[in-house]
Predict the structure.
Amino acid sequence: MRAADAGRAAVAIGAAVASVSLYRNGTAWATASLAPADTEATLAGSALALMPQTPEALELRFVARAGTPVAGLRLGFTAADVGVVQPGNPLLTVAVVAPPGHTFPLWSEYGGFVVTQLEPSYSDFPTRSRRDARPRTSPTTCRRPARVSLRIWTPRGEPVASLIDGARASRGAPPGRRLGRP
């Protein structure tokens, strides 16, 4: 896995990312911890048993490095970056192909890092004990049109809730919906 800036110029992935993981069917398949000077992340998981003519999708997740000097980045890889161990039978082959409508190298969308402070909103957060609690909105807006997801995780990486999943947000508009009382 490599990192690049908005113009796809190389960026040291370790300067912005503390760890990167690939998930298969919601379960961590491979994880790499990175040093700040690392220019590539190598992820190696257990062998995948593939079904003939069936694509295998992996989900990429990363943890941003605290205090990163990088304003933003995109993550990507080339077909040659994916190591494949071919089956012993010469009639069987494994091909690394880009998804329909895409070509290698594959890059994520460019995303920026923004310092946020939630502390001022803690005292106003609706709880079950406050009967007067009313719905609140997130103070977040998008700098350009995007798809937005908002998921809550425990510090151990366990999923808690998915409040917004792939919602479209236009430039300057808050993503998603109003969040009400639980």
